[in-house]
Amino acid sequence: MSNSALLTPYELGALHLPNRIVMAPMSRHRAAEDGTPLPVVADHYAQRAAAGLIVTEGIWPSRRGQSDWRLPGLETAEHVRGWRAVTDAVHAAGGRIFAQLMHGGRKGHPLARLSGDLPAGPSAVPAPGPVHVRDGGKADAVLPRAMTREEVRQAVLDHAAAARNAVAAGFDGIELHGANSYLIHQFLADNTNLRDDEYGPGSVENRIRFAVEVVTAVARAVGPGRTALRLSPGNPQFGMSEADPAPVYRALVDALDGLGLAYLHLTDDDRYPALADLRSRWHGTLVANVGENRAPTTREAGEAVLASGRADLVSYGRAFIANPDLPARFARDAALTPVDPAHLYTHGAAGYTDYPFLSPDTDPRRALAGALGTRTR
């Protein structure tokens, strides 16, 4: 497997990636009640430091954007200290890590939010399905408020402030979550944006306005080379509807293409082949995710995406949950450990940091321990 394109290096701005395998963002609910990542989070990500790049789970930029209980935040000094422990552990193990900022918008519940208030999105359209709330329970979604213009502008400022906190916490960059039914996606989609102002669906330019403003604000706050965006055009998860994604996402990609962003993270969908349609419009690094709403991405599927020229890097989600040494397993053509579904959203080490390594030499922290031992002798 030494000639696999997935295992070849890639230069991502100032970052040297040893391979083209990206750990996709995945919420795991391992934060304290105030949103500070628990100590086990540092170990979890350090275990996976052999990835070319790690993207964290979604992190709320302010409590106004909190969706579920015990999701992490990047709003307070305590949050910054908690995430600094994570980035220090990843960097010490030789890894690179971006923080994903994820504003819930309409998603949430008063019992899932530190503020105890109703969530607010582009329009007063409820999200389907239950919400994780206090004490490990679930509750039906509530009718959200429609954001005022002032709240929309505040959300832009909140993302920029959280991006600055991410840099202070030692992250190598920030990925904005514009996918999978969260706030940016809610402004882009047909059924969640019913506004009649300059952020509404009256024109494509209006529909993409919020996304462009957030990306631009974060790029100004921390630099475009530290700023990235994830999109999932046509993704129907959590009740989203986009009858004709192409015009909206073509316009959005065109508007952002010249900013010099770190990368665009794009999920493909059976209803809209976003990678094929948008690749030629994006002249920077493109990260592909081809497992959304499909079977988990295999090594062969990732190699096919790279060979087609549709992407420069490939992100893996479920495979990284249960295989902290995923690049080594691909390199050795080894079997993958299955995911333990019972512990996906619990709060401890079980099903989080107790998955086995292929062998001791595939644990990136082992190399760190050896180096530290050499220096102290």
Automatic annotation (TrEMBL):
Required co-factors: FMN
Instruction: Work out whether the entry's keyword set contains 4Fe-4S.
Output: no
Q: Which SUPFAM superfamilies match?
A: FMN-linked oxidoreductases (SSF51395)
Per the record, the domain of life is: Bacteria
What Pfam families does UniProt report for this protein, alphabetically?
A: Oxidored_FMN
CDD domains, alphabetized = OYE_like_FMN
Q: What is the protein's given name?
A: Alkene reductase
Q: What is the lineage of its organism?
A: Bacteria, Bacillati, Actinomycetota, Actinomycetes, Streptosporangiales
